[in-house]
Task: inverse folding
């Protein structure tokens, strides 16, 4: 098992803020909108340095999505910022009609996704957003794993023509991916080559998969760990190549089983290469108040849950 | 070819009210024929808003049909928020040169660019955003108006909404936003025909005093007769004269649903129903033009 040293922990939302600020300096067409959550989205630096390109929308997310669609008409590249819950479920029809069906070049940037939002509880902890967004035709769905990757993804999506859903979160997590990484949309990242099982993880669960890989190595299990930062379009080749090698698959994500990464990979395997698969995800439940770590444990989203899923799926392998 | 030198733009400046009335009659013929051909679509609101769209596209707006530019920099832009009145939009776009008039015969048919409600992914020139699910167009128009300001583009943005549509909450989010952000290059029009699918708006939605409501939101508000070009054109000029003064402009435009076809006029029953063969003939007799050029 490869080692993944890190020197600090940071929140992925700060990676978004840093990436957006850099875009402000490098791309004059980038504009930003926020629905009364500048601090939570870490958009302060952009607001301070590019006030003429920032639009405070207030607590009016539906209007924000429409404004963003309109701003593209004239060549702007709007980045909307609010919590994941208010970026998706609250404004689904606005995104569907004015952005996705209309093919608008809007970047929907969503923080506080999943249970790691913590104490605010289930009203704010959306676990359905990946599914909602990936169902929309032509919507690109990205869920990076740490600060550096979120910053790189933020910068990369400005050069991608079309609607993007960029999902990130609130808790501080180890910063282990390179600061100078080139973010390739739709390209999975091989973290650890292995032979016994393929673990496909996204977002905060990527670090948990690395921790699980170490525990598995102690048990003599050589796990292949792949970071799927882009859920749609899925890196079909990377998934199939790994699955065909290891013959069993575990997916891991901070999302419902229904509609998430595991669902996408299960569909792919069922069509192309039927193999045993276990999903580490929330099983048809809302979240609740608690600390992020407590919630990740209660809802089965940590390294122990991944290890258990690996042992189960390896036992099912023929 | 720039918009300012196009033949369409030059003709626009000199077009008389009499000519506009002929164009409006032709557009109304298109509307009833389009919905009759597929036995579906929305003739009522389309006929009611014909005079406005003809005034905008054939007189008031500076725009360039060909080649169509999605960004529309240097042009006035129009957004149709109440997308169900697509027949009038399609007819006016075709007749002002965005696409062939003959294509109106494909309305609502399989593999057509003329979807039941306006869409962009078929790349029909003149459509800049999909609409149909109500309440979204004002926000989009405000965004486009703000993009114009960022681009140093001094042209304006127009948006049309239905009055029943004002029951959607997003409209009021947008109505609060635009004056607060001094979006003063925007003219919004409400088609106040007083009708919606289930009946009169005052029985269903309780729209109340719209002038007072929009004035309270700090809009510049004026009212106009939307079915009399002699009154509507000066109202649009008045609206344009009020731009650039820190506030968006709202025109509360009174129309009759189904205007121009007597048996459709003023009733919500013709919101989304097509005429039969006999009714079509009757409508076309009432919508006579000097030189009909039906597709």
Result:
């Amino acid at each position: 098992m490869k080692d993944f040293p890190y020197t600090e922990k940071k929140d992925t939302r700060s990676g978004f803020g840093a990436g957006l600020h850099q875009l402000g300096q490098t791309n004059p067409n980038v504009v930003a909108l926020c629905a009364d959550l500048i601090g939570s989205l870490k958009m302060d630096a952009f607001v301070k340095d590019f006030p003429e390109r920032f639009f405070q929308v207030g607590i009016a997310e539906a209007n924000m999505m429409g404004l963003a669609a309109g701003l593209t008409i004239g060549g702007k590249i709007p980045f909307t910022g609010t919590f994941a819950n208010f970026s998706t479920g609250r404004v689904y029809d606005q995104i569907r009609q004015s952005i996705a069906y209309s093919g608008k070049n809007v970047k929907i940037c969503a923080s506080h996704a999943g249970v790691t939002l913590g104490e605010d509880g289930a009203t704010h902890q959306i676990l359905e957003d990946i599914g909602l967004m990936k169902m929309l035709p032509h919507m690109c769905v990205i869920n990076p794993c740490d600060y550096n990757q979120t910053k790189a993804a933020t910068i990369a999506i400005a050069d991608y023509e079309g609607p993007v859903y960029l999902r990130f979160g609130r808790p501080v997590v180890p910063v282990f991916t390179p600061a100078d990484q080139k973010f390739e949309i739709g390209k999975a990242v091989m973290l650890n080559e292995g032979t016994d099982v393929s673990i496909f993880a996204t977002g905060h669960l990527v670090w948990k998969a690395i921790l699980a890989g170490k525990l598995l190595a102690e048990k003599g299990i050589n796990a292949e760990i792949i970071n799927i930062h882009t859920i749609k379009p899925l890196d079909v080749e990377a998934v199939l190549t790994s699955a065909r090698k290891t013959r069993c698959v575990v997916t891991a994500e901070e999302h419902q089983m229904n509609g998430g990464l595991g669902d996408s990979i299960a569909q792919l395997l069922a069509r192309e290469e039927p193999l045993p698969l276990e999903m580490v995800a929330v099983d048809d439940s809302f979240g609740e108040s608690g600390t992020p770590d407590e919630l990740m444990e209660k809802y089965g989203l940590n390294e122990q849950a991944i290890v258990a899923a690996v042992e189960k799926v390896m036992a099912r392998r023929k | 070819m720039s918009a300012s030198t196009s033949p369409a733009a030059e003709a626009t400046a000199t077009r008389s009210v009499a000519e506009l009335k002929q164009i409006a009659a032709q557009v109304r013929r298109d509307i009833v024929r389009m919905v009759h051909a597929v036995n579906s679509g929305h003739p009522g609101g389309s006929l009611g808003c014909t005079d406005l769209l003809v005034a905008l596209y054939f007189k008031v707006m500076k725009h360039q049909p060909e080649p169509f530019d999605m960004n529309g920099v240097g042009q006035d832009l129009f957004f149709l928020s109440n997308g169900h009145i697509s027949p009038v939009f399609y007819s006016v776009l075709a007749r002002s040169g965005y696409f062939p008039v003959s294509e109106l015969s494909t309305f609502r048919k399989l593999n057509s660019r003329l979807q039941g409600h306006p869409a962009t992914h078929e790349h029909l020139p003149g459509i800049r955003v999909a609409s149909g699910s109500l309440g979204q167009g004002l926000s989009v128009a405000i965004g486009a108006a703000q993009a114009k300001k960022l681009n140093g583009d001094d042209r304006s943005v127009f948006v049309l909404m239905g009055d029943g549509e004002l029951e959607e909450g997003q409209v009021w989010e947008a109505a609060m936003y635009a004056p607060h952000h001094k979006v003063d290059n925007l003219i919004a029009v409400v088609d106040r025909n007083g009708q919606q699918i289930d009946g009169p708006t005052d029985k269903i939605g309780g729209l109340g005093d719209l002038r007072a409501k929009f004035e309270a939101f700090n809009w510049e508000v004026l009212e106009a007769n939307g079915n009399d070009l002699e009154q509507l054109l000066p109202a649009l000029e008045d609206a344009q004269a009020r731009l650039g003064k820190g506030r968006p402009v709202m025109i509360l435009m009174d129309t009759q649903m189904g205007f121009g076809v007597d048996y459709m006029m003023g009733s919500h029953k013709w919101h989304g129903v097509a005429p039969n063969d006999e009714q079509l003939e009757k409508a076309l007799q009432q919508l006579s033009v000097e030189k009909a050029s039906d597709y």
